[in-house]
Amino acid sequence: MAKPYAEVIGDPIGHSKSPLIHGFWLKALGIDADYRATHVTPDALPDYFAERTRDPDWRGCNVTVPHKVAALAHVEDRGDVRSTIGAINTVIRAGDGALIGSNTDAPGFAAPLGTLDLAGKPVTVIGAGGAARAILYALARRGVGAVTLLNRNVEKGAALLSGFGLDGQALPLDGAVPASALVVNATSLGMTGQPPLALDLSALPDDALVYDIVYAPLETGLLAAARARGLKTIDGLEMLIGQAAVAFELFFGAAPPRERDAELRGMLLG
Ligand code: NAP
Fold first, then answer.
1. CB-ligand 1 contact for 153 (6 Å cutoff)
2. Ligand 1: centre distance to CA 133 (Å)
3. Which of 39, 191, 214, 255 is the most buried (most CB within 10 A)?
4. What is the tens place of the pLDDT at every residue in 61-98?
């Protein structure tokens, strides 16, 4: 009998770390299932969902670039993802056979923040793409105060702030980072092969937290600058593992062994 499986779909897909993460947890828990990477082009997306709907072994999929918005047309939204984040990264099949889309980037981003109290506090978010949408959704739910959104395309940033009902202002990327409890980089700047993200952090209070969702390299220029100032930091692998953990439980019905995160991080960096 074939094994149950889940997968990540994208175009390209070879770079994805999801098979390593889910494979590590499946092995750790002794679950006899697979998690694979499957190359799906935009043209093939409708056929992909039609075929997988009929496959009894398919538990669901993660969805990555460029399908996060397009996949919404093929699934039911039993939450608020369509009207809020507007993009999904996880699809599962419900007991009634329906394909259900959700976005685990938002809880994956929020999990490393733990119980940090951000209610009413000023925050700065850099970026206005898909990841920024999930992050602004998560921050709005935590009741943050004024949001300074720095983005190359300022109009896009302003539209996001008003779309999520957040107070604050959108500024160009060369705007200085104002005093903030939390600074999040949600652009691809600082990633290997991309331009660096050069920001002046001097206005941040000493207890500010700096969070970079870029994970290649793990120690970005932003995190290095924050550490040099003695600020607390969170790196991109924490969100990557966090979003995968929520999806894993949806696919395989078991909580991943997060007490083994240090080992998992070592494997991902090796
Ligand atoms: P996206 O939708 O394409 O958005 C890209 C963002 O980066 C936009 O704000 C864009 O600005 C900005 N940007 C890109 N190139 C730029 C440049 N040369 N100069 C200035 N701004 C630039 O991408 P995404 O899906 O949001 O992903 C963004 C990053 O987050 C990627 O590095 C991705 O790997 C990472 N990510 C990490 C996780 C995790 O779990 N750790 C999850 C999701 C994404 P404009 O709006 O002006 O174009």
1. yes
2. 11
3. 214
4. 999 999 999 999 999 999 999 999 999 999 999 989 99
Domains 5-103+238-269 and 107-234 share a fold: yes
CATH fold, domain 107-234, is: Rossmann fold (3.40.50)
Q: 184 near 149, Cβ under 8 Å?
A: no
Q: What angle do CA 112, 104, 188 make, to 5 degrees?
A: 75
Q: Name the pTM for this structure.
A: 0.96
What's the order of all strands across the beta sheet hosting 123-126? 168-171, 147-150, 123-126, 182-185, 209-212, 232-234
Report the share of the chain in percent with pLDDT over 90: 97
Q: Is the CB of 243 under 6 A from ligand 1?
A: yes
Domain edges within the chain: 5-103+238-269, 107-234
Say if CB 265 and CB 237 are below 8 A apart: yes
Query: For residue 166, what are the CA distances in angstroms to 120, 159, 203?
Result: 11, 10, 22
* 175 pLDDT more than 80: no
Pocket probe mutation, ligand 1, options 64, 68, 160, 188, max atoms within 8 Å of Cβ: 188
Dihedral over Cα of 68, 74, 79, 80: its sign: positive
**Does the beta carbon of 256 sit less than 6 angstroms from any atom of ligand 1?**
no
